[in-house]
Specification:
Layout (H helix, E strand, L loop, with lengths): L2 H13 L13 H9 L8 E4 L6 H7 L5 E5 L2 H11 L6 E5 L11 E7 L8 H14 E10 L6 E2 L2 E2 L5 H8 L3 E12 L5 E11 L1
Helix pairs in contact: 1-4
The structure holds S-adenosylmethionine.
The site of S-adenosylmethionine (SAM) has 20 residues, from α1.
């Protein structure tokens, strides 16, 4: 449990609009490309970790995926996403939880995480995340984190930067990288943030 982190995110989603936060994307294209490249059936269970009020879930519903879960530490973020989706929100499973406390009740065919894993900065936290994905991800993991050319903080919080070798090594006990790329994300303030993306498959 990280109460100060939860409070940070609850405050953020109470006070900032999507055009006031750096990570907002109108179209999460890279994530969607990797998810579609996984060639999973449309009823495969997918989870977006730290989904916040990202539009990824909207695009996944539009693409016909029917077993989508969105997890976030912030209840405010989840409420915003639910409000935006309206009745379509009923088709999604919503979980308010710190990823470090998450005890899944099922396995997932695809685990997506853009800009949440990188907030874990201690060996203990990173090991806990690795143990969770090793146990609960059946096949695909799509990760987007700040690269070594990216910012050192996100939302004012320290993060861990990764290059591809480090990301590969981090998960190599159970996963291998099948595709990867770096990407400049253009923020709503017209600055650039360099991300390292990777699509990993369970060995
Ligand atoms: C930088 S935002 C990225 C949001 C979204 N993934 C996107 O790409 O637009 C990070 C998100 O992770 C959530 N978050 C941060 N730490 C978390 C944690 N320990 N467990 C679960 N969610 C967390 C925040 O509330 C926030 O919604």
């Amino acid at each position: 449990m990280q109460p100060e982190k939860k409070e940070h995110w609850e405050q953020l989603y109470k006070t900032k609009t999507p055009d006031q936060v750096s990570w907002t994307q109108e179209n999460p294209k890279t994530s969607l490309d990797y998810i579609k490249a996984s060639k999973l059936p449309k009823n495969a269970p997918l989870i977006d970790i730290g989904g916040g009020d990202s539009l990824l879930v909207d695009y996944l519903l539009d693409a016909g995926y029917s077993e989508i879960t969105v997890l976030d530490i912030s209840e405010q973020a989840i409420k915003r996403a639910q409000k935006r989706l309206g009745i379509a929100a009923d088709k999604v499973t919503w979980i308010v939880s710190d990823i470090l406390d998450f005890k899944p009740k099922r396995t997932y065919d695809l685990w997506h995480d853009r800009a949440t894993f990188h907030f874990l900065t201690t060996v203990t936290e990173i090991e806990a995340y690795k143990n969770t994905v090793t146990q609960w991800v059946d096949s695909n993991m799509v990760l987007g984190v700040f690269s070594k050319e990216g910012p050192l903080k996100c939302s004012g919080l320290p993060i861990t930067q990764y290059n591809l070798a480090e990301l590969t090594a981090c998960f190599s006990a159970a996963f291998e990288v099948v595709h990867a790329q770096t990407e400049d994300h253009s923020t709503p303030f017209n600055t650039l943030q360099n991300f390292q993306f990777a699509h990993l498959k369970k060995k």
